[in-house]
Amino acid sequence: MNSIKNIFRYSIKVITLALMLTGVVWGNTTVQAAMKSTEVSSQVVPLQPIMIQGPMPIEAEYFAALLDNVNIEYSGNAVFYRGTLDGYPIVVAKTGKGLENTAAATAIAIERYRPRLIINQGTSGGHDPDLNVGDIVLGERSVNASNFKTQKLAKGEGSKPFQWLPMDLMASEKSAGEGSSAKDAEKLRFYLGDKTLIALASSLSSSYKRGKVVTGTIGSGNFWNNEIDRIAWIHKNMGTSVEEMETSAAAQIAHAYHTPFLGIRVLSNNITNHGEYDPTTAKDCQAFVADVVKAYIKSLNQIN
Questions:
Q1: Given this model, what pLDDT does residue 34 score?
Q2: DSSP code of 54?
Q3: Phi, psi of 228 (to 5 degrees)
Q4: Cα separation of 127 and 23, whole Å?
Q5: β-pair partners for 216
Q6: Residue 176 — φ and ψ, nearest 5°?
Q7: pLDDT digits over 166-193, tens only?
Q8: Mean pLDDT score of the chain, rounded to an integer?
């Protein structure tokens, strides 16, 4: 009987040892099994949008209607239409009229959207008698045509606007009107349009049927000149082709942020040659700018 019990106990020990060894093997197998994993791809840098600016609804909403997948955002007096054109991100900014609205909208847009480039476009009044309603001016230069310092005249001596001096507010951080820095400020400041964009837009001039496409100087200021002699004086001294209220402000802010910029303006009227105001030119300008943008997008796709 004892022999049977001993055999039984021995068998239990063998079985227990076998189970223990099996557990070790199973344990090692569990540790060595492939761990679960996931792969995270490298982040893709988002495409920088192209920004198109227009001050009034008739100068912005036609272009905005060309976009797909549009979202509308608001900031201050500006309205931003975010969407795509030919699959590329576009922001159309309805800036509001005038230098102040345009400068604010441009700064907000650059900080918020980081645009690849900015095109400020819309209507304008002619300064050059050789340009007609419907002609487009590509802003080889833009200038604030309302920055002036007047001569010192005593009471009763009146005002002599043809003797006013230009005033460059960016010449220094000191006074632009008095003191030693004032003399340095007695000059015009021109902001140059992006040469690549000018060349691209010029190459499409034959496709524009409403008028001719030329390069020139866009004069900006919060004024609406109806005095022929005043217009002629600005045209002669500043070389302006047209006047409007926005381009130079946008150009100044774009320059501060190192953002490529071009102003494109259509003549909606030209008092120097009796060209009557035609608001439909705003749509023609936007259609031409759309062609420029599509050509630019196509050039990017060819590079990539």
A1: 86
A2: E
A3: -60, -45
A4: 95
A5: 139
A6: -90, -5
A7: 999 998 888 988 888 888 889 999 999 9
A8: 91
Partner residues linked to 130 by β-bridges: none
Phi, psi (5° rounding) for residue 234?
Answer: -65, -45
- The four Cα atoms 216, 217, 223, 226 give a dihedral, to 10 degrees, of -50
Write the pLDDT tens digit of every residue in 117-152.
Answer: 999 999 999 999 999 999 999 999 999 999 999 999
Query: Which tokens sit at 135?
Result: 């002609």
Task: Please give the Cα distance from 197 to 188 (Å, whole number).
Answer: 24
At position 64, the amino acid (one-letter code) is: A
**In whole angstroms, what is the distance from residue 262 CA to residue 265 CA?**
10
Work out the pLDDT band at 26, boundaries 50, 70, 90.
very low
Residue-wise pLDDT for 194-245, tens only, equals: 999 999 999 999 999 999 999 999 999 999 999 999 999 999 999 999 999 9
Pairing of strands 213-220, 136-144: parallel
DSSP string, 225-288: ---HHHHHHHHHHH-EEEEESSHHHHHHHHHHTT--EEEEEEEEEBGGGTB---TTHHHHHHHH
DSSP-derived 3-state class of residue 206: helix
Quick one: tokens of 64? 């905005």
3-state SS assignment for residue 120: strand
**Contact criterion met (CB below 8 Å) for 231 and 269:** no
The token duo for 300 is 């990017």
* Chain-centroid distance, C-alpha 229: 35
- Predicted local confidence at residue 180, as pLDDT: 84
For position 287, what pLDDT does the model report? 98
Q: In the chain, which residue ranges form alpha helices assigned H by DSSP?
A: 2-32, 61-64, 99-113, 195-203, 228-238, 247-256, 281-303
Sign of CA dihedral 277, 279, 282, 284: negative
